[in-house]
Amino acid sequence: MEHISISAIHRFVEVHALWAYIILYLGVIIEGEIVVIFAGIFSFLGSINLFIAFAAIVLGGITKSFLGYTIGYYLNKHHSHKPVISKIERRISYFLPRFKEKPFWSIFISRFFLLGIGWFTLVFAGYKNIAIKLYAKAEALSLALWSIGFLALGHFFGYTALSISRDVRKVLVLILIFFILFFILEKIIAFVVELFTIKDFDEYEE
């Protein structure tokens, strides 16, 4: 019965693989971490094709990069006086205080932050008219590392959970625990990076 439960989930996703790729594409545009990790889990189970999943992730990332920069460029041209722009600038300055001095690094690292800072950074890059070549290079390198990293993490979650138990209920609980631990760790890393960047910025100001 336990094996049938796991197999049933595997077959359900496999039958609806097209929808899985569409959700993956849209999920990456919205934010991305959770859907990419699940893509890694289901590709490990064999429910979806790893290479098609990777293509959907990359396409979603490219779409997000294009939309973010375009929105920022549009805001610069037509709505630069709006209060929302000041809010975006303050948010970026808080998390990435050296954006103006090091735009490549800021754009690259922003994809790995939580709380939607990635979207704010892309819009801000377009608003500040960051050179397209620099922007594309930073986004391409960030997307490649981010995609491979989170897919691998999903494989690890799936492999570890199934190695411990084949009971679908226990597997789901283990995956939930992995997610919680991962997001706690990511928040800690983001906090440490934030402290160092703010410290460097303060020293730079002095």
Brief characterization of the structure:
By secondary structure, this protein is mostly helical. The chain has helices spanning 2-15, 17-30, 33-45, 50-78, 83-95, 103-110, 117-127, 132-164, 168-205.
Question: If you had to describe this structure to a student in words, what would you say it looks like?
Answer:
The structure is a single chain. The chain is an all-alpha fold and 206 residues long. It has one domain. Helices cover 84% and strands 0% of the residues. The chain is built from 9 helices and no strands. Helix 3 crosses helix 8, helix 4 packs across helix 7 and helix 6 packs antiparallel against helix 7. The N and C termini lie far apart (66 Å). The C terminus is likely disordered.
- How would you spell out the order of helices and strands? HHHHHHHHH
- General shape: elongated
Which segments are poorly predicted (pLDDT under 50) over 5 or more consecutive residues? 198-206
SS-derived structural category: mainly alpha
Domain unit count: 1
List the helices and strands and how they pair.
Elements: H1 2-15, H2 17-30, H3 33-45, H4 50-78, H5 83-95, H6 103-110, H7 117-127, H8 132-164, H9 168-205
Helix pairs in contact: 2-3, 2-4, 3-8, 4-7, 4-8, 5-7, 6-7, 6-8, 8-9
Overview features:
206 residues, mainly alpha
